[in-house]
Q: What sequence folds into this?
């Protein structure tokens, strides 16, 4: 149950786009379309932003999009806004019927 | 409106036990799988355990297997996590979360309860 691999930090200026990668294995990301992304602001509970690789829950801005290729999933945030500054976590279902999270990526809006 | 309210956290000595609870409302509890996810201070999210809607199927992270037990009381719309043989590394905020089935993404999360294991 090794954690998925995410960059520790990414940054971008308001209005720009950024992409966060999430690398797993053929036992998790590569074999299931149950990849999701969460946003977490300091002191708050995680908020679901993307589920089943590409789907946005109701109420989530269409500035958030995601994709998957092989063992790597990606989250793209376009038109960066100050309120997007947060920690982002990817997650995947695994072949052991468990769930694994990435180590988290801190997004800084410059 | 979906609401998940954790309780029961606190300070416990190494080797001790604690049970945390999660009271659910706003959805059909018995139709939902429920998970526990924890976050150590300043660290990332770590999945702990999941239970099916009926309670008949459970899975655990290797780090807690044999020490923690997840359970639910569908008549009370409440999820539990019994934690035994606690270690310092179990110190974390414990979140409960719901999903439509075990494999599905946890969509709604509670605000968490802090468990501190220290002498």
A:
């Amino acid at each position: 149950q090794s954690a998925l691999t995410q960059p520790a930090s990414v940054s971008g200026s308001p209005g720009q786009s950024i992409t966060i990668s999430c690398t797993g294995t053929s036992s998790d990301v590569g074999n299931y379309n149950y990849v999701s992304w969460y946003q977490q602001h300091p002191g708050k509970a995680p908020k679901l932003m993307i589920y089943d690789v590409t789907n946005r829950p109701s109420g989530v801005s269409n500035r958030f999009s995601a994709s998957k290729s092989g063992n790597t999933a990606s989250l793209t945030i376009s038109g960066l806004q100050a309120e997007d500054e947060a920690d982002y976590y990817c997650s995947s279902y695994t072949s052991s019927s468990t769930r694994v999270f990435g180590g988290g990526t801190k997004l800084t809006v410059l | 409106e979906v609401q998940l309210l954790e309780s029961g956290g606190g300070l416990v000595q190494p080797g001790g036990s604690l049970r945390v609870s999660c009271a659910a409302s706003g959805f059909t509890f018995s139709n939902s799988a429920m998970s526990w996810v924890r976050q150590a201070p300043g660290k990332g999210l770590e999945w702990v355990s999941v239970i099916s809607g009926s309670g008949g199927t459970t899975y655990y992270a290797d780090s807690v297997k044999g020490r923690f037990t997840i359970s639910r009381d569908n008549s009370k719309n409440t999820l539990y996590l019994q934690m035994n043989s606690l270690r310092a590394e179990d110190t974390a905020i414990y979140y409960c979360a719901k999903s439509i089935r075990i494999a599905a993404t946890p969509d709604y999360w509670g605000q968490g309860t802090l468990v501190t294991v220290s002498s």
Remarks:
- Chain A touches chain B through 27 residues (CB under 8 Å).
- The two ends of chain A are 34 Å apart (CA to CA).
- Chain A has a mean pLDDT of 97.
